[in-house]
Amino acid sequence: MQIFARKLLQRISRKQVNGRQRAYSTTRFLDVGQPTPASHPQLVKEGEITPGISAEEYISRRKRLLELLPKNSVAILAAAPEKMMTDVVPYPYRQDADYLYITGCQQPGGVAVLNHECGLSMFMPETSAHDVIWKGQTAGVDAALETFKADKAYPISKIHKILPDMIGRSSRLFHNRETGVKAYVDLEAFRRADSYDMVSNLSKFTHELRWVKSSAELKLMRESASIACQALLQTMLHSKTHPFEGLLSAKFEYECRMRGAQRMTFHPVVGGGPNAAVIHYSRNDQKINNGDLVLMDVGCELHGYVSDLTRTWPPCGSFSSLQEELYDLILQTNKECLKLCKPGTSLLQIHNYSVGMLRKGLKEIGIVNSNGTDPYNELNPTSIGHYLGMDVHDSSEVSYDRPLEPGVVITIEPGIYIPPSFSGPERFRGIGIRIEDEVLITETGHEVLTGSLPKETKHLESLLNNFSYGMGTESHSNVKAAIS
User: Fold this and answer.
1) Chain centroid, CA 94 distance in Å
2) How many angstroms separate the first and last alpha carbons of the chain?
3) Would you give the DSSP letter of residue 36?
């Protein structure tokens, strides 16, 4: 019976083609080095280049960029280079946001050129048999045309023959100086144009396009925020029985990846006790002492779109009266600044309001000395927020005094960071608190994308004392009831 079954399987797994046996598969597809509708139907729908973003939208982005570019100009975008950890071990690869925004290609080695005459031309890396064995297939000329919908495509080895002529016929050249690669910056035509002051930064155009998100982009940003909120909630529940910075960092990353995130937005900030007063603390190697607060500034990336949020809580389960007094000042500032988030208001206006509110509160609490010295800039040297999108500080070329528009996503993140060396009252030293939310500007006001994550002291204490891992038999499905 086993012999019969084996022969039957052999027969149905092969078919006759021109008199020869050929393996048969119902899942044969062209591997272009990244997910496509054929290779990853669970991720990419028909008509999409990357998950959630259609070919039509990518083509529209290129047309909009051409509309912003001066006539007879050329825009050059390079893929992010690979960075090596050791001689043979690369760091995890992340594509340059502008290159990804325009092309949809998630792989290194390419250069994209956009002009009014030719549309989008893509110069693609050439893969050797050795590369395929060690790294797998990558997108080439055919994929540039068929998958990424380029108007023209060439192997990267032809760039020295084709691009100089395109540069020579143009009167203006734009590229991202931070991501320029030797493949084109070392060309004599490019160097000559640069010496004649014909080369400018492309980011002022691409950041303008990326500032207001499309409905497809906002869907991905909501999903990214939702994943991060769920992951941080699970991390909070984990913190009472596992009060270690490194374990909480690992827990958050695990929960994000289990929900589909590809990577962290940045290395998680997990500051326990005085470490919370270090704004971009990243060591994450300390035990969190009983009675201390922990500040977690975290986020994840989902198909090119990032989240960014912060919560501060006491893993032991209760705020001290002093911690609660400071926390309440940050919480109220967070809430009042959220009320200002609407079309026509700028991030700078919201920031200035937050500074006034925090200064007043710090004086009332007693952190400002009786001699009238103002330590505010020492205790909070940060902005109230930033733009958010494909990068954590998205569209950085757009000024913070620009009136906000529907479709823009920002963060609101008031905080206070009191180092142990603070010259003010000793009882406040070594405390760091930040509450950060993601906010979408809408036609009528705003939508808090991270609104599902608790931040009220009573909700945090209820979660930690009634629903933490190992603290009882309560089901985690009841968590929502605790914060409602």
Assistant:
1) 10
2) 62
3) -
